[in-house]
Design brief:
single chain; 175 residues; 11% strand; 35% helix; alpha/beta; five-stranded mixed sheet; globular
Length: 175
């Protein structure tokens, strides 16, 4: 279980980029998040209880983070003998992401943060991705890995999962 603070993670990862490409990195990140939110909100009309936009934004930030760490550890060549590893400066979070609570806002701002129900009632998110679950990278029928191709994230966005203590969301990649 990892508390995910989008602004802190985005700025930390941007700081790891070369100085001349930091602004481009953050702009690209924000554009990808915005594009993802727009694609998900197009499916709200079919939902009986649509998600708040702030929930979609927080989940899209997580998707962008998972894409980032997955890309950093992806094998780029069939001739590669070892899989790349994450730099020790990159935080390893997930697969269960928890939104920041009032305590996080209080400690980050050092002042009395505004109580914002829109951010205090965000649902946690489970991410089902081969980065976290390597067994997803092989066929369950024949156990081969060469015919598995991932086609991105589910197009309609996260699904609600009703837990024992709290309702959560879950999202995965598609074959």
């Amino acid at each position: 279980m990892s508390v995910y603070e989008p602004d802190a993670i985005r700025k930390l990862l941007a700081a790891l980029e070369p100085k001349d490409s930091r602004k481009k990195f953050e702009a690209s990140w924000k554009f990808s998040v915005k594009k993802q939110v727009e694609s998900w909100t197009g499916h709200d009309d079919r939902m009986t209880n649509p998600r708040p936009r702030r929930q979609y934004e927080w989940e899209a930030e997580i998707i962008e983070y998972v894409n980032y760490i997955s890309d950093k550890t992806r094998v780029r060549s069939a001739k590669a003998l070892t899989q790349p590893h994450l730099d020790s400066k990159i935080p390893l979070l997930g697969p269960h992401f928890v939104p920041p609570c009032y305590l996080h806002a209080l400690r980050r701002n050092q002042l009395e943060p505004a109580v914002n129900p829109e951010t205090l009632y965000l649902k946690p998110l489970w991410v089902i991705h081969p980065f976290y679950y390597s067994e997803l990278a092989r066929c369950p029928r024949c156990n081969c890995t060469d015919s598995i191709r991932w086609d991105g994230w589910t197009g309609t966005g996260p699904r609600d999962v009703h837990g024992m203590f709290v309702n959560e969301g879950a999202i995965g990649t598609q074959l």
